[in-house]
Amino acid sequence: MTTLAILTAAGSGARLGRDLPKALVDLGGFPLVLHAARRLVGSGVVDALVVTAPDGLRDVVADLLITDAHVTVPVTVVDGGPTRQASVAAGLAVADASHDVVLVHDAARPLVPADLVRRVDAAVRAGHDAVVPGLPVTDTVKQVVPGDDVELVVGTPDRAWLRAVQTPQGFTRELLERAHKAGRERSGSEAAAATDDAGLVEALGEPVHIVRGDAAAAKITTERDLRMAALELED
Ligand SMILES: Nc1ccn([C@@H]2O[C@H](COP(=O)(O)OP(=O)(O)OP(=O)(O)O)[C@@H](O)[C@H]2O)c(=O)n1
Ligand SMILES: C[C@](O)(CO)[C@H](O)COP(=O)(O)O
Does residue 150 form part of some domain? Predict the structure, then answer.
């Protein structure tokens, strides 16, 4: 069996608010996308990498990754799409059909531990066709009717049943391709795009399994997250 990783890096990073796309923002001397690529490859289970690049920056991303001594697997860089879902689909479209397992990882989670990558990959190889890392939710979560200043609470789900999910999310290539195809056929609109790949698999009615996530794989969305990641890197 061989594993392909699709590294999504085409987002603009609007919530981070920098003047360059989030994947190219510096963390401890290297851009987020390079940290993520090094950790995927460093896990030892990734045989090839497809990276989705922000508009007009395909060559910049390719130079960065292809010249890096730690990125020792073949790399293909493609233009991303208008949503994360469309970017993953663009990556899948160029994926070599010989790979049985596909891991989809966000450049926005640059400090993913190699162990976590291996855990997800191993669970797919062991026969679980869709595997997602997840962490227990520690806050009490309220369901609301979304509003502006004051929102109405309509429920409190039992948090013992909730997991906050991360990436990499791992799939057999066949299932991931089927889930994206169905996702495209179901909705034409960007607003309806899934925020993760497992959601597309769930919509097919196929099982998704959770393995233990890792706080170090936290997503960088805001400046505060970036500062936290810088501290994590110093440890
Ligand atoms: N059209 C898009 C949108 C997002 N992503 C990637 O998907 C991951 C998760 O997205 P998110 O953290 O939401 O990144 P952005 O979309 O860049 O952030 P924002 O919503 O703040 O603009 C990121 O690695 C991002 O680069 C992508 O490849 N293509
Ligand atoms: C895929 C993901 O990282 C799982 O937590 C997340 O859903 C991506 O988040 P986004 O900010 O909505 O793109």
Answer: no
Query: Mutate which of 219, 220, 222 to test ligand 2's pocket (most atoms within 8 Å of Cβ)?
Result: 219
Pocket of ligand 2 (CB under 6 A): 84, 106, 165-167, 195-196, 219
Of the candidates 226, 109, 214, the one whose C-alpha atom is nearest the C-alpha of residue 163 is: 214
Cα separation, 61 vs 80, whole angstroms: 12
Taking 3-state DSSP, the helix, strand and coil percentages for the chain, each rounded to the nearest 5, stand at: 35, 20, 40
Q: With respect to residue 138, please indicate whether it lies within any of the assigned structural domains.
A: no
In which domain, by residue range, is 108 found? 3-132+163-234
Q: What CATH number has the domain bearing residue 13?
A: 3.90.550.10
pLDDT per residue as tens, the chain (235 positions): 999 999 999 999 999 999 999 999 999 999 999 999 999 999 999 999 999 999 999 999 999 999 999 999 999 999 999 999 999 999 999 999 999 999 999 999 999 999 999 999 999 999 999 999 999 999 999 999 999 999 999 999 999 999 999 999 999 999 999 999 999 888 766 667 899 999 999 999 999 999 999 999 999 999 999 999 999 998 7
ipTM for the complex shown: 0.98
Q: How many domains does the chain have?
A: 1
Residue 80 resides in a domain: yes
Nearest-CA residue for ligand 2 atom 8 is 195
State the Cα–Cα distance between residues 120 and 103, nearest whole angstrom. 8
Give the Å distance between the CA of 67 and the centre of ligand 2.
28
Taking the centre of ligand 1 as the mean of its atom positions, its distance from the CA of residue 60, in whole angstroms, is 18
Q: Does residue 175 fall inside a structural domain?
A: yes
